[in-house]
# Entry
Amino acid sequence: RNRKERGKKQRECSNVKISVVKTTTPRVKPDQNNLGFGRFFTDHMFIMDYAEDLGWHDARIIPYGPFPMDPACAVMHYGQAVFEGMKAYRSPEGKILLFRPEQNMARLNRSNQRMSIPQFDEDFALQAITQLVALDRDWIPEAPGTALYLRPFVFATDSVLGVRASSTYRFMVILSPVGPYYQEGLNPVSIWVEPHYIRAVRGGTGYAKAAGNYAGSLLAQKNAQAKGYSQVLWLDGLERKYVEEVGAMNVFFNIGGVLITPDLGDSILPGITRDSVLTLLRSWDIPTEERDLEVAEIFRAHAEGRLVEAFGCGTAAVISPIGRLGWKDQAIEIGGGKIGAISQRLYDTVTGIQTGRLEDPFGWVLELDN
Ligand code: PLP
Ligand code: COI
# Structure
């Protein structure tokens, strides 16, 4: 967006006051050591609505809870919906920290653009998010490996069955105290190279965090689990030859000391963790490559003893080491089934910066004045 457009959007929105209705029945907080992922929700949520004549309006924070939906509600039929995932942490000094949240807002607007959902004012939405997090600050868990996961999402709300972009939408944010995303935690996971199903294809919606991308991924995930693997490695949609992503994460392979990740096309979700990992690796003078990576090259490198480590990366798990990779009738072990040195260093550094235990040389952390 150019500055003029952005300035206009800000005028429309930034001075809007967010109304707040506090809960009168606060929930019991869950045990911090047994949170799982996305199973518990805080006391409040943020909502704003969109209509063509009003723009985004009626911004409000209200008690968390269900709301009525018309059976014809567009999102339930044609899946016009997008979401984000980000985390809030509490620093050792008790400050509330968000990690690169403006990146999530920008990506949400890019997802909106792809799914024909109207743009929103990113500064205003971030303001709303920080206000919500501050209100529910007591829900930010402090046990190691935990965080408050923030889930902004937007969906179509017209009650019309015609296949067309909705004229009304709802933007919401809910908060969930979470533990590690995978049961394995930082222990390496086993990954199945999916030979048939694809997650995304050139010209499709892969670069958007569109709800339907995830619905379409579940069958392959289920099949991989039946084979004893925990996630799939997605290949490109045209030749099923090049690596794209792993589960709902970006992926890196350390081949002979070079950290290789697929370059971003429109079939890959541009991960904020991926970008942070690349930035850290470059700052450590570790060679990186963003390029096409054939799955055959990975197996060849393994045969030659040059496949050092592999990991997925994303907000939920941060770094998830890959210990075993199955492809057709072969299965290889990576790094002796243990977390690699660079994977561990990345995990420690990213989580150290996110939680305020390490210096933030890249200006990634937003500290809330609470
Ligand atoms: N790839 C997919 C498909 C995802 O859903 C996510 C998570 O949001 C990622 C990659 C990692 O992105 P990020 O690091 O921004 O969480
Ligand atoms: C991630 O953060 O890596 C994710 O993919 C989140 C997931 C819950 C969709």
Q: What stands out?
A: Residues 24 and 63 are 8 Å apart (CA to CA).
